[in-house]
What does this fold into?
Amino acid sequence: MVRSVADAAYAVLATAHPADKVKAARAASRDWRAGRLALIWDRAMPERPARPDRPELLPATRMPRRGKGGSAAGRIAMLHALAHIEFAAIDLAFDLIGRFGTLFPAAFLDDWFGVGADEAMHFALLDRRLRALGSFYGALPAHDGLWEAAGNTADDALARLAIVPMVLEARGLDVTPATVARFAAAGDATSARILARIEKDEVRHVAAGVRWFLDLCGNRGFAPVPTWRRLVSERFGGTIKPPFNDSAREAAGLTKGYYTDLPNPPIVQH
It folds into this structure.
């Protein structure tokens, strides 16, 4: 029996165990590429995705401070935080598909099923690395800021694209090069290679966000840059401030006009 797009997206969101969520994401993306998913939205997306018992989710203000990644414990804490981001990003990709896919052509689904598969791969790489270092995903607490951003934009595809890929994922482009350098300086070349690989993929993800943000702005007759800046002011509870990885942002189509001189810039927390 052919599954619907909505059912495939829901299956990922409803899966709690990390390894099973990775499998569900890969299966959904594989089914889409193979033409086995019907363009039917016959199931509403859940308000929140299923989550494993661990990690414990804390408010961002209660999260223990992480080191810079120089010590072994600091590197594990950083990798755990990044694994949690990638785990949440799986759900963000499939919620975008299931919640807003009817607003876009099939090329939108091509992009975001691909993003979902990438995020699953990123999580699997980081989880494997944590285990190689004697830890595991769930060993440390994490915060739920990424899904809070999803909740704040659940009513509007334009706001979702503005905040998740064009703010949160773009911030990853800013901070990852320094993190890669710290891991390399600490002699952890394996982790550095994984993070560099993830950053390369994230440029494509931000580019997909920009592409479909522009598409939807065009459909609604909105000017992209002032619309993005307004949505960030209205919908984003964190802060956006330098340093910016201008070259990576430019490669993704997120030009300086979007993010320079934002009023009262707040701090994106990861």
